[in-house]
């Protein structure tokens, strides 16, 4: 069994809700985990970088702690940009955050930020010899580079087998759900994990052809507003609302989209959509 603590979307601030979030996350630091994954939108402003480091500094994981960034880690959005973004999504914003500082402070406390790159960890277990972690930058602001990320990831799928003829067929194949809640490793003795902030349908469609096993993502806040019997009203990205949060077993891979723990500072509300920290356990099937 492998145990993974998956945290996302803190949007960490020092207001009342931010302090509650800080206290809650601190309460998790005694969990025994193999990996800790952070999937972006950790802070929105440089002034909260030290607060973030203080919140995460006592976490331990047997094999490592890894993070990827979302748009809010890169940019400090203005209110007018937030409002315009509701009608037409922007790819960049006026105020850039000090990303180098965030990466540096996280490294100081043992958390490695992966920016379109991979890491291999030999865990030497009988069922899983190696865990390969591939961290992708955010597709919403077009920082994702899947080719670069897989450059050092070892054999994926042959480029000639990555279909280019019919996106519709590729999409339907990627998002084909299985009845059984079991996944067979795509690579013998190796577990290939993807960290990505936004569960973008185009990116996932391509990743599904690269022998990935589990994709961990955030961004959606579970829709942030959910209605009884209906679920999420919006996903906040290019993925169907029915996939806005939860664990999904598709034909070739597993997708986990967490609701995350916070909300953006211009939309501090949730409706029928509780925040969450996720403890994911991976078992060997009998």
Can you describe what's shown?
The chain has 286 residues and is an alpha/beta fold. It has helices at residues 16-26, 49-56, 71-74, 79-85, 99-108, 146-151, 167-174, 201-207; strands at 2-7, 35-39, 64-68, 111-113, 117-122, 130-136, 190-196, 214-217, 226-227, 231-232, 246-249, 254-257, 278-282. Strands 5-6-7-8-12-11 form a six-stranded mixed beta sheet. Helix 2 runs parallel beside helix 5 (99-108) and helix 7 (167-174) packs across helix 8 (201-207). The longest helix has 11 residues, at 16-26. It is globular and about 50 Å long. The model has no long low-confidence stretch (mean pLDDT 91).
What can be said about this structure in brief?
This protein has helices at 16-26, 49-56, 71-74, 79-85, 99-108, 146-151, 167-174, 201-207; strands at 2-7, 35-39, 64-68, 111-113, 117-122, 130-136, 190-196, 214-217, 226-227, 231-232, 246-249, 254-257, 278-282. The protein has 286 residues and is of the alpha/beta class. The chain has a single domain (2-282), classed as Purple Acid Phosphatase, chain A, domain 2.
């Amino acid at each position: 069994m492998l145990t993974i603590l998956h945290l996302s979307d803190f949007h960490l601030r020092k207001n009342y809700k931010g302090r509650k979030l800080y206290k809650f996350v601190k309460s998790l630091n005694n969990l025994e985990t193999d990996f800790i994954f952070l999937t972006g939108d950790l802070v929105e402003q440089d002034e909260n970088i030290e607060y973030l480091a203080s919140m995460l500094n006592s976490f331990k994981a047997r094999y490592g702690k890894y993070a990827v960034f979302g748009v809010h880690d890169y940019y400090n959005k203005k209110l007018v940009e937030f409002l315009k973004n509701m009608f037409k999504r922007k790819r960049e914003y006026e105020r850039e955050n000090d990303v180098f500082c965030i990466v540096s402070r996280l490294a100081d406390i043992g958390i490695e930020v992966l920016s379109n790159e991979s890491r291999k960890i030999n865990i030497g277990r009988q069922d899983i010899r190696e865990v390969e972690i591939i961290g992708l930058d955010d597709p919403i602001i077009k920082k994702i580079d899947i080719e670069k990320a897989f450059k050092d990831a070892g054999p994926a799928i042959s480029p000639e087998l990555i279909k280019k003829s019919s996106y519709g067929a590729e999409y339907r194949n990627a998002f084909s759900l299985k009845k059984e809640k079991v996944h067979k490793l795509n690579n013998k003795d190796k577990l290939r994990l993807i960290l990505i902030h936004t569960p973008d349908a185009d990116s996932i469609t391509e990743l599904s052809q690269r022998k990935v096993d589990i994709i961990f993502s955030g961004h959606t806040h579970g829709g942030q507003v959910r209605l009884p019997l209906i679920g999420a009203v919006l996903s906040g990205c290019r993925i169907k609302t029915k996939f806005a949060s939860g664990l999904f077993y598709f034909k070739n891979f597993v997708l986990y989209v967490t609701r995350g723990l916070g909300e953006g500072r211009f939309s501090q509300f949730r409706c029928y959509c509780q925040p969450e920290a996720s403890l994911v356990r991976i078992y060997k099937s009998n």
